[in-house]
Specification:
Elements: E1 5-10, H1 14-25, E2 29-35, H2 39-46, E3 52-54, H3 57-62, E4 66-69, H4 76-85, E5 89-93, H5 100-113, E6 117-120, H6 123-130, E7 141-147, H7 159-175, E8 179-188, E9 194-203, E10 208-214, E11 221-228, E12 231-236, E13 241-244, H8 258-261, H9 263-275, H10 286-306
Parallel strand pairs: 1-2, 1-4, 2-3, 4-5, 5-6, 7-10
Antiparallel strand pairs: 7-11, 8-9, 9-10, 11-12, 12-13
Helix pairs in contact: 4-5, 5-10, 6-9, 7-10
């Protein structure tokens, strides 16, 4: 018998809606509802799925066992900390926070209470489905492009914390060593945060990474090129295809796997498996999410230094 858990979502934006629909459709989850500071927004997401709209965070936390925090990034640590203090397991959308020290306090609080704290770097699921986490080789060069047109989402943080952090997490999974330097240049948007950024990061292993993100592009583009001693892999994340000249036994049909077809669902399932004790860890741990945040903030500092 699968243990039934009461699931709920903090934040009634686009990603809050994604998470609410996942919880409402999952076996072993009773969808409780959505908390948002604007009750009408919470109702618009929760009620069509059979959940409640909560205007009070404490009341919401009494009604759940597991929580997704999908509010604006600047509220992630504060709201996740409230859930941890109430004894709830927490899945935080990326980034885990906007300050490393605050995120570390959150991680420590969850560890002290024996609670699962996971983060939503869902591209990791796609990398796993391709087989890129099991190559046994450290890359020499990694280049990524993550462009999109202007959007009202995530305007509280820069394109580094909104877009590049996906690629920073993937980079850290294959780097095989710690970063040494970060340099970059960017373009500030009208709200005073970086809407475009290009970063060059070097690692102890000799790996160089060149990451390019933009929220001002005419169209979406999500690509990555990884050069290994034995060849290279070029990935198109939108088309869900890759070109491979290495000897690695990558999965050419990865896009048809359940995980790659629904990386959010696979990531949430991994979180719930860890909560139930069926898995040793979630897909992305709090410590890994903090490492990605730390590197993202180093990139932002490099942009400031170059301005």
């Amino acid at each position: 018998m699968v243990q039934t858990l009461r699931g709920g979502v903090i934040g009634a934006g686009v990603f809050g809606g994604y998470h609410a629909r996942q919880y409402a459709g999952m076996t072993g989850i009773s969808f409780s509802g959505v908390f948002d500071s604007q009750p009408d927004r919470a109702a618009a997401v929760a009620m069509p799925l059979g959940g409640r709209a909560f205007a009070d965070l404490e009341t919401f936390l009494e009604a759940v066992d597991v929580v997704t925090v999908a509010s604006p990034a600047t509220f992630h640590v504060e709201q996740a900390m409230a859930a941890i203090a109430a004894g709830k397991h927490v899945y935080v959308e990326k980034p885990i926070g906007v300050d490393v020290a605050d995120a570390e306090r959150l991680r420590a609080a969850a560890a002290k209470r024996g609670l699962i704290l996971a983060c939503g770097h869902q591209e990791r699921v796609v990398f796993q489905a391709m087989g890129l986490l099991d190559t046994g080789q450290t890359p020499l060069l990694l280049e990524s492009t993550r462009h999109g047109p202007p959007s009202p989402r995530s305007q509280d943080v820069s394109a580094v914390l909104d877009l590049m952090i996906h690629d920073l997490d993937l980079l850290l999974t294959v780097a095989g060593s710690d970063p040494v330097t970060a340099e970059g240049e960017g373009v500030l948007g009208p709200n005073g945060v970086w809407d475009q950024a290009r970063a060059e990061i070097t690692f102890e292993s000799g790996l160089t990474a060149i990451l390019d993100v933009s929220r001002l592009a005419p169209e979406r583009r999500r690509t990555m090129r990884i050069v290994y001693p034995s060849g290279e892999v070029e990935v198109d994340f939108l088309a869900r295809t890759f070109r491979n000249t290495t000897p690695f036994a990558l999965n050419p049909d990865f896009a048809s796997t359940a995980a790659a077809a629904d990386p959010l669902g696979a990531s949430l399932a991994g979180f719930l498996a860890a909560v139930r004790g069926e898995a040793a860890r979630p897909v992305v741990t709090a410590q890994e999410a903090i490492a990605a945040l730390d590197l993202a903030l180093a990139v932002e500092q490099a942009l400031e230094n170059a301005a």
